[in-house]
Design a protein that fits this description.
Layout: E1 2-10, E2 19-21, E3 24-26, H1 33-40, H2 55-59, E4 64-66, E5 70-71, E6 77-82, E7 102-107, E8 110-115, E9 118-123, E10 126-132, E11 141-144, E12 149-157, E13 159-166, E14 186-187, E15 194-196, E16 203-205, E17 209-218, E18 224-227, H3 234-241
Length: about 240
C-alpha cells in the first residue's frame, strides 16, 4: 500500500447539486469521498439489478480509496442563470416540458490577486488523501461533478507511515473531513464538531478523535498528517505497516 497527498485543481466550472433551495442550486465547497472514489477509479457507470445505488458494494472493490476533499485556499463562486423560453411568444411561464427557471452557483476556476503590483491568477485547489492498494499512483486527470468536469490531480507520496491509536488522553485532529460510514472510532466531546449535510451522507468537520486507529505520515517538507483510513481496509494496512 502507498499513501498520497493529492491536490485537485478544477479546469472547468465545478458543479454538483449539494442542495437545492427553491430554484437555486448550490455547490458545497467540500467534495464528498463517495464522488472522489468513483472519479479517481475511473468509474462513472455501474450496472445494478437494484433500483437503488449501493455505494458500499461498489467502493469496496476499488483499488484506490480516498478521503473527502477540503479547500486549500479561498473557493470563489460564480452564478449561472437558466431560463426556458417559449419560442412562440418569448415567455418563460408556458406550460410544457421546459426546465425550471433557476440559478446555479458553481465553483470558479480561481481568483485574480494583486501581488507586488502584479495580477496573479490563484487556481482553486482541494486537498485529499489517497490510499493505493495496488501501489499505482493516482491518475493525473479525472472527471468529477455534474457535467464530468476535467480536474488535474497533483499527488505526492507520503513517507514515515506509522499506524497509531488515538486515546482519550491524547486525542488527534484529522487532516481531512470524516465520512462516518468509513470511520471506526470515537469523537472527543470536549471539542465542538461541525456536521455538513452533503449527499449521499453527511460529513464531520473540525473534529478531534479519541478512539480508533489512524495513519501518521509526513510529506517532503516533514509536515505531519493524521489520516483515518476506511475501516474495511484496516486489515490490509496493518499487513503492510503493522501497528506502532
Amino acid at each position: 500500500m502507498k499513501l498520497y497527498k493529492c491536490v485537485l485543481e478544477p479546469h472547468d466550472f465545478l458543479f454538483f447539486a449539494s442542495r437545492d433551495l427553491a430554484k437555486i442550486g448550490v455547490t458545497e465547497k467540500i467534495i464528498h469521498s463517495t464522488a472522489l472514489n468513483y472519479a479517481i477509479n475511473n468509474t462513472s457507470r455501474v450496472i445494478s439489478s437494484s433500483s437503488q445505488p449501493d455505494y458500499g458494494r461498489d467502493i469496496e472493490k476499488f483499488q484506490i480509496r480516498v478521503t473527502p476533499a477540503r479547500p486549500v485556499n479561498m473557493v470563489p463562486e460564480i452564478g449561472f442563470s437558466y431560463n426556458a423560453v417559449n419560442d412562440l411568444d418569448i415567455s418563460t411561464d408556458a406550460v410544457g416540458n421546459y426546465p425550471t427557471v433557476g440559478k446555479y452557483y458553481k465553483i470558479n476556476l480561481g481568483t485574480v490577486c494583486m501581488i507586488h503590483g502584479r495580477q496573479i491568477f490563484e487556481p482553486t485547489r482541494f486537498e485529499f488523501f489517497a490510499l493505493s492498494f495496488d501501489e499505482m499512483p493516482p491518475r493525473r486527470v479525472m472527471r468529477v461533478g455534474k457535467k464530468d468536469n476535467y480536474c488535474i490531480i497533483n499527488s505526492e507520496e507520503l513517507h514515515g507511515i506509522m499506524i497509531k491509536e488515538a486515546t482519550e488522553e491524547y486525542p488527534v485532529e484529522p487532516a481531512h473531513p470524516i465520512n462516518p460510514l468509513e470511520f471506526e472510532g470515537f469523537f472527543e466531546d470536549r471539542f465542538p464538531i461541525s456536521l455538513l449535510s452533503l449527499p449521499p451522507h453527511l460529513l464531520v468537520l473540525n473534529c478531534w478523535v479519541k478512539g480508533g486507529r489512524y495513519i501518521e505520515a509526513r510529506d517532503k517538507i516533514n509536515k505531519r498528517y493524521v489520516i483515518f483510513p476506511p475501516k474495511d481496509r484496516m486489515s490490509k494496512i496493518n499487513e503492510s505497516y503493522g501497528s506502532n
